[in-house]
């Protein structure tokens, strides 16, 4: 197992290059020796995982293997669960986000999150998007705010469908539109990373296809990490895949390699449906 992780890390580092727009090097996030427990029960065991920028990393594995728990480490959402204790380092922009000096609220604007079930605020479509920029003081004028709302809705592929009814309630939209609204809301505060926890599980196949197209578009700009139960979805949308089992990272690598030529027996058993 160790060999696999080391090899994949080398592959990633070999592709290291300077991002001209942001002046950043890959990987975007470096997770080192992450352990997570809920009370006495350990859910994540010593996971180290580099996450590259401008691509989609899929976390897959059987129910209860720790995918969501690990995802929540990346924006410190586990802080909100009293029994949960996280150790290890998650380096972003040269800082360990687990450092007590890091403000989790600010962190969550840099690392946005989209949940299983679309959860628009009980506000208008416009205010759903404007909320974040307002509380983070990102817009100086009303024109700035209008522009941010339009840009976010355009990026989320929703503008044409809602531009004539921005004052309607967010929850008057269809499920798929609501999920794109939630993605637009995450984008509005200019995140660098977007976490998605099974974003299509409440959607029909047409709405799912629309979100998958959107994810493919967004990856040109953002670092995206997605938890999915669907191996087909992981294969369709991600460039890298990490396979979790019983709280361990069994294997990670290029998505094509994981699905066509897994190195570990447990990965092969899972992707061929022998368990999980
Ligand atoms: N809030 C919590 N309190 C206590 N234990 C928890 C909590 N959340 C998760 N766990 C436990 O941690 C382990 C990992 O759960 P997690 O939800 O991260 O797995 P998962 O792979 O995302 O599962 P699923 O695919 O079913 O959503 C499980 O044993 C689960 O019971």
List the helices and strands and how they pair.
Elements: H1 2-14, E1 18-19, E2 24-25, E3 29-38, E4 41-51, E5 56-60, H2 67-73, E6 84-92, E7 95-96, H3 104-110, E8 111-114, H4 125-135, H5 142-155, H6 159-162, H7 175-188, E9 193-197, H8 205-218, E10 223-227, H9 231-237, E11 240-245, E12 248-254, H10 255-260, H11 265-271
Parallel strand pairs: 5-10, 5-11, 8-9, 9-10
Antiparallel strand pairs: 1-2, 3-4, 3-6, 6-7, 11-12
Helix pairs in contact: 4-5, 4-7, 5-7, 7-8
The structure holds adenosine-5'-triphosphate.
The site of adenosine-5'-triphosphate has 13 residues, from α2.
Short descriptors:
alpha/beta; Rossmann fold; six-stranded mixed β-sheet; four-stranded antiparallel β-sheet; globular; binds adenosine-5'-triphosphate; phosphate transmembrane transporter activity; ATP hydrolysis activity; ATP binding; Phosphate ABC transporter ATP-binding protein; AAA+_ATPase
Q: Tally the structural domains.
A: 1
CATH class: Alpha Beta
CATH architecture: 3-Layer(aba) Sandwich
User: How many whole angstroms does the radius of gyration measure?
Assistant: 19 Å
* Total beta strands: 12
Helicity level: 25-40%
Mean pLDDT across the residues is: 90
Instruction: Report the portion of residues in β strands.
Output: 15-25%
Run of helices and strands = HEEEEEHEEHEHHHHEHEHEEHH
- Give the neighbour order of strands across the main sheet: 8-9-10-5-11-12
Terminus-to-terminus distance: 20 Å
The main sheet comes to:
6 strands, mixed
CATH topology value: Rossmann fold
Query: pLDDT below 50 for ≥5 consecutive residues: which ranges?
Result: 1-25
Structural class: alpha/beta
Name the shape in a single word.
globular
The kinds of small molecule bound in this structure are:
adenosine-5'-triphosphate
Number of helices: 11
Q: What's the CATH H-level homologous superfamily?
A: P-loop containing nucleotide triphosphate hydrolases
